[in-house]
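User: Structure please.
Assistant: Input sequence and predicted structure:
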Amino acid sequence: MLLRQLEYLSALSREGHFGRAAEVCHVSQPALSAGIRKLEAELGVQIVQRGQRFEGFTPEGKQVLQWAHRMLADEGALRHALASMRGGLSGVLRIGAVPTALTVASLLTAPLRERHERVRFSLESMSSREIVSRLNDFDIDAGMTYVDGEPLGKVRVVPLYRERYVFLTPADGQFGGRDALGWDEAALAPLCMLTPVMQNRRILDACFAEAGALVSPVVETDTVSAIYAHITSMRLSSVIPHAWLHNYGVPDGARVLPLPRPTRSCHVGLVLADRDPESMLARALVETAREVDLHGALDQTLRHHLGTPV
């Protein structure tokens, strides 16, 4: 069994199409198909369901795919360990983050890069559920997500900071002259918020419900940048995590108001696959996270924008 054949299988799983999988692997489609057929012959099972096009994996194929992900991840970890022994850590650290946390990922990647200048990064915006799935499939090395809310499964958790929420609104709008706001009042404003598929939105819906309010946003989106764009262009308001202020700040013509702390706030943290041996890149990320005071840095930014102690 060749690792290359396992790479073909992994690519087919990601792409769901023989042609695209072959393109990703930089081989012809006949070569990729032949490699997978050879793997089937070696293992004595049918792995792929074939018709006019790729139709998925057989039950045996799904089992083989799980082992393929694991073996490829171990091969990558071995290469990183040997590279570190030769002259420093190198490779691509793959991080999946919920949009609310992606805005502060640079607080970890920047100092990690200073320590290990040969490390590169791949950052993707994902839902919390997708992060756990991709970790289990060895498609990412670490996730940044909520760690004390919805079930995460069997993962390692490194808490980073507790989320705070503020109201971002036009400075000359109906609430622009206020010094603070209640959740029930915030629900009355024309809002732009993340979509319900995002865990942050589900958390905020619970905060509104606790105050006896229900929201019906004018605009729903899955990106932070789109929320900021609509606050500016349509003069909408939004309830945002304080972490967004670190990179995005407060747009011209808007101001930020404190909201009462909800009964339950959520922790954002790193999640990693609970497996041994541990990825050298993931270990470096955890070491960096334990040295960087994200909680303090974000609270300082919040104090700056509110102009008052928090």
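The first strand starts at residue 48 and ends at 50.
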